[in-house]
């Protein structure tokens, strides 16, 4: 926990880079039910693997431009020409495996949506009981992230390991992992109360 120049207590990591502050205060941990946003975050967490979130956050708009704003149906149509285009895009992470995984995962996402109705329905069906959660930011995987990772891999998804999935759960609000003294934790709790689970 850290006190910031504005006198507000926040998660310590929010002070790690200037661009983290707005992301921490307005996005991280707030519940999301929009499939496009959920798919974007799965992809970006996959791209982050082995890198810092700051790198990804700074390139997020370039990723959105390169990946058709992460519209699932559009990314699913990407061809080898699109892979080559993205490999030449200095504004993103030019990693063939991660690029191909995002395209593959869009196709697998369509299958999952056909089965479950939406990505939101699938992911929120794995929401843990808040009473069972450990101290915030004390773990990097959970039973839920392992279960989701295992299931997605069986479905053919790639770059969705348990740590990547846990970061996704934190970011998309399936858990409130803001530190207990963080001022934003209460905002997230309030948003979760009002949130209509799919």
CATH class identity: Mainly Alpha
Task: Measure the end-to-end span.
Answer: 33 Å
CATH topology: Endonuclease III, domain 1
Sheet with most strands: strand arrangement: 1-2
Q: Mean pLDDT score, rounded?
A: 97
Q: What are the segments in which pLDDT stays under 50 over at least 5 consecutive residues?
A: none
Number of extended strands: 2
Fraction of residues in helix? 40-55%
Pfam families: Adenine_glyco (PF03352)
GO biological process, one term: base-excision repair
Protein name: 3-methyladenine-DNA glycosylase I
Binding site for Zn(2+): 11, 24, 178, 182
Could you please describe the fold and organization of this structure?
The chain is mainly α and 198 residues long. The protein has a single domain, classed as Hypothetical protein, domain 2 (Endonuclease III, domain 1). The chain has 11 helices and 2 strands, in the order ββααααααααααα. A two-stranded antiparallel sheet has the order 1-2. A hairpin with a 5-residue loop joins β1 and β2. α2 crosses α10 and α9 crosses α10. The model has no long low-confidence stretch (mean pLDDT 97).
